[in-house]
Amino acid sequence: MLSVFNAGIQNEVQNNGYTLVLMNGDLAYADGYLSYWDLFMNNIQPFTAYAPFQVIDGNHERDWPQSGTYLSHCSAPASSCAGDDFSPNPGNKGPQGPNPICTASGTGPFVTCDSKGECGTITATRFTQPGIPNFTPSVAPTSGPSRQKWYSYNYGVIHFLSYSSEESYAPGSPQYQFIANDLANVDRTLTPWVVVGAHRPMYADSTDFTGLPDPSNKNIVAPLTADEDDGDQYVARKQRQYLETLFANANVDVFYNGHKHIFYRTCPIRFGACATTRDTVTGAIKGTVYVTGGNAGRSLANPAKQLLELNPAYAPYATAYYNGTLNAFPDPFEAVNGGYHVNVTTTVYGYQRLIANATTLTFQPMDVTTLPAKPFVDAAAAFTLTRLPVAATTPPATTSAPPATPCPTVTAAPPATCNCPVPETCPPPTTCPPVQGIKGQIASAVNGALTNPLGLIGR
Questions:
Q1: How many helices (H) and strands (E) does the chain have?
Q2: Does this model's pTM top 0.70?
Q3: Per-residue pLDDT tens for 136-152?
């Protein structure tokens, strides 16, 4: 399946004009075997040779006991475990020793052992993301500065923010401060759209209530078991608790994640309810579409077991994932409310296309069961967001006299290569060609002239 999937992405990049590929963690599933990483890198080369490849750490790259991850037991001094409120793991109410042991299969009592000891170091040395300078990989939080796993960048008409769901994003943490500052300073005249990515879902259509009252079992808190230690609803609730206000204030348009090996998405959500209000200036919906695109290569999930709506034990309580208790909100994953979830017959391998210009953003799930890839059989899986362009604020025209010092007469020939723009008040000695590349794309896109296609991968 991996070869078919890679061939689909390769075709998008080389032949269909897609210019950026993103993968939301759980990259190689190498489990500590470096040869698997080599195989993974060889497999992705046909498309990474043509397009930037942006990644996020997932649990299979980062999580390991006492390594500083959000979901691992921290036995270091309290100051080093600040904000580590997932430790011990959700649902664990019993005593926990200082040295949890992972089994050969990668599971263990009260801990997440999914990286099999990689602790993020392999990913850190093989991938360098925007804005991240030279770094010193670190295993334990007390052994030196860790590589920064969160970053942002502008690409065409989109501002992308990627953060690590495996490290602390609690208020006061470095990652929280970065997210808050970044979202507060987006320039919508340059990048009208804001897309945020992480590995774990912030709204999870999942029957895993580990650590929360289980609605199918008299709201008893589900204990942690060795084969179900992800705490989907628990982690989703924490992300909403800490980050959803930041997303709402910044009017984030799309949140995309992997982790669950399935595809589903919500309606545009604002604090749990499908949004209906639009911005009075841009007309954009004031809500975020949460997309889980984890159907990229690992074995697919069984929707009849894992999705709330399709599991008989959970279907009557399909809104309980909001806060662990029942409420009156409509189910945001149902098509009738503007969302979408797969069923047994529509669970397929694939990836997602993202196409945007200054006024329209379209998200299209693709099916790679056979090549060439084709859109999902259910048209409701795709969605399009619209907005009006935001005009850039221009300074008032000046009517002042010419510069105090007159410009010198140019007697020498212009330079062989044009060094633009010239940062001085006098006119440049020669006319430079227009700026090319991303800056040029952004300028065109703000005027609505550019369609900027992107290939998205989620695991």
A1: 8, 19
A2: yes
A3: 443 333 333 345 678 99
